[in-house]
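Hi C.,

You asked whether I'd gotten around to modeling the 210-residue construct. I have! Everything is below, sequence then structure, no commentary in between.
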Amino acid sequence: MLCPACEHPLEESTAACAKCGFSLSQADAQFGSALQAQPRLTDLQGHLSKSGRSSVLKATLEFEQRFPTIPITTLIHVAPEGTPYRPYLFWLFNRSGLHTALEKAGANRHILLWIDPDSCHLSAILGYGLEPLVPDSLIQVSLAAARQLAHSGQTAQAAITFMRQLDLGLVNLQSQLPEIFGWSPEGTWSALEDEMDPQEMDRADGILSY
């Protein structure tokens, strides 16, 4: 985890950054009262058309059907002028009411996509439970795929494109997990038995039984 203000490495339980002093309580004092977000899509300022809202919600439901343990919310929101984006998004993620008390630390697998239609800024943040599994490069590729659409005013399509690119990346990531964790198909063990001497088989059987 990196400090959202200065990107200094932080422990998950750190209350304030040792380098710059950033903390959620400091952000509370700086940003005031946080908006209360709605799951899947929050557009309190009414930037999306009715059809745009429907399209984003449809794409969100499709994403959640494919990845039911990864809730994703799109926030369409204009930040106050001069707002530092990274600390602001971190603060919104933690203060906007998207998570229950049980979805803390490693149990938090939410994704929040934020699009500011005035500045065309687009960024995303992952819950702690996803950080060790989903590389930042995948998020950056997904944001890059949507950025031009956001800059051309196609806010709804930008959100949909982000989700679709993220979907492709997660599918690819899933296919790499067996290699990452050294998993082998169950049938491999029986194939290996033919190549092992009896003493090696006895030791292997003991380990597998345990």
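If it helps when you're writing up: Residues 188-193, 200-210 have pLDDT under 50 and may be disordered.

Thanks,
B.
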